[in-house]
Specification:
The protein contains eleven helices and 15 strands. It is of the alpha/beta class. A hairpin with a 2-residue loop joins strand 2 and strand 3. Helix 5 (about 135-140) runs parallel beside helix 6 (about 160-170). The radius of gyration is 19 Å and the shape is globular. Bound molecules: magnesium ion (MG). Magnesium ion binds near residues 176, 178, 203 and 204.
């Protein structure tokens, strides 16, 4: 009843961040079928967190009937960290598929089952990857429907990029340096400059391991600092308030919706702001994160828009905000456009 295939996702533009560039990405689609319903999930393994497609496949090869018990799904969800300790994205895929199946079996949208009000959805940012400054400005000018733009920085041309974008738009900007500023003096100089040009927050300015430097930076930063690479599983939240004002939750880092809600609760308990983000994922992974996005402060769920062959149809983006539909489960439909199973 469990099935999975690799999906090769073609990108509209090469996607560059401070660590490197991608021309396409692979994710793994997981499905669980029972009682005439199919629940879908997705794993988007990221090498930054020690994951690979082969690692996820090896983890999923161990799935058996124990991972589907319709009357005790919560027990299964709780067992996933023991089942796949090294693969949070494999946990996420199984967790998402189980949540989709569970809500479908009750004929409810998942957000309703979780008690989440879709009207509280914050607008999503649109991500602009690293490119030549004029190319980044061109992409910004094509993104007028979004309430804010998330600009990838962490290069030696950061100011030129922001200046070029500022020539074409007054939209609020968020900046993600992806650990790209390597010393704290450089980081604070950049952040102080960014605060003066309409940037509202900065994500992961310095390498995640630089905890003392992050604390130094937080004491001086005029902008909120959001931890992304520095936050993985729920237990990692305890170190965050020293160096950051908030965290970026991604289902692929923490292992799915069950862990994501736990992480969200822990973040709120610690007084942290919360962003919900994504890896490069199809509308399936995005739909899963969108279910809990109304509980967060900042939404960054746009990677399905980077893909030219999205195999799923999900929730519409209306005036820059994801509007959750009222279909049962995740609310997605498999449409399978040009995604070939590789093995
Ligand atoms: Mg980030």
């Amino acid at each position: 009843m469990w099935k999975y295939i690799i999906q090769r996702l073609e990108l509209h533009h090469p996607f560059r961040i401070s660590r490197g560039v991608s021309h396409f990405r692979e994710t793994i689609r997981v499905s669980v079928e029972a009682d005439g319903r199919t629940g879908y999930g997705e794993a988007a393994p990221n090498p930054r967190y020690g994951e690979s497609i082969d690692g996820v496949l090896a983890a999923l090869d161990t799935l058996n009937a124990d991972a589907f018990q319709p009357d005790s799904l919560r027990s299964v969800l709780m067992s996933l960290p023991q089942l796949f300790p090294q693969s949070p994205s494999a946990r996420a895929a199984v967790d998402i598929a189980l949540h989709d199946w569970w809500a479908q079996s009750l004929d409810l949208p998942l957000y309703r089952l979780l008690g989440i009000d879709p009207a509280r959805m914050p607008p999503t940012s649109k991500t602009i990857g690293i490119a030549a400054p004029d190319e980044m400005a061109r992409r910004a000018s094509e993104s007028a429907e979004f309430a804010c733009l998330k600009i990838k920085l962490g290069t030696d041309q950061d100011r030129e990029m922001i200046e070029a974008i500022r020539k074409v738009t007054d939209q609020p900007l968020r900046v993600d340096a992806n650990e790209g500023w390597l010393n704290r003096e450089e980081a604070i100089r950049q952040i102080e400059w960014l605060a003066g040009v309409g940037v509202e927050l900065v994500e992961q300015p310095m390498p995640a391991a630089r905890i003392e430097d992050s604390a130094w930076l937080k004491q001086r930063s005029p902008l909120p600092l959001i931890a992304d690479e520095a936050v993985t599983n729920p237990s990692s939240v305890s170190d965050i308030p020293e160096g950051y004002h908030g965290i970026n939750i991604k289902l692929m880092k923490c292992g799915g919706l069950f862990a994501g809600l736990d992480l969200l609760t822990r973040a709120r308990t610690a007084g942290l702001q919360v962003m919900i983000g994504c890896m490069v994922e199809t509308s399936c992974g995005i739909a899963a994160a969108a279910q809990i996005a109304p509980l967060t402060d900042f939404v960054d769920l746009d990677s399905n828009l980077l893909i030219s062959n999205d195999p799923f149809e999900g929730h519409p983006l209306i005036d820059g905000t994801i509007r959750l539909n009222n279909r049962p489960g995740l609310g997605v439909r498999l449409i399978e456009r040009g995604v070939e199973p590789l093995r």
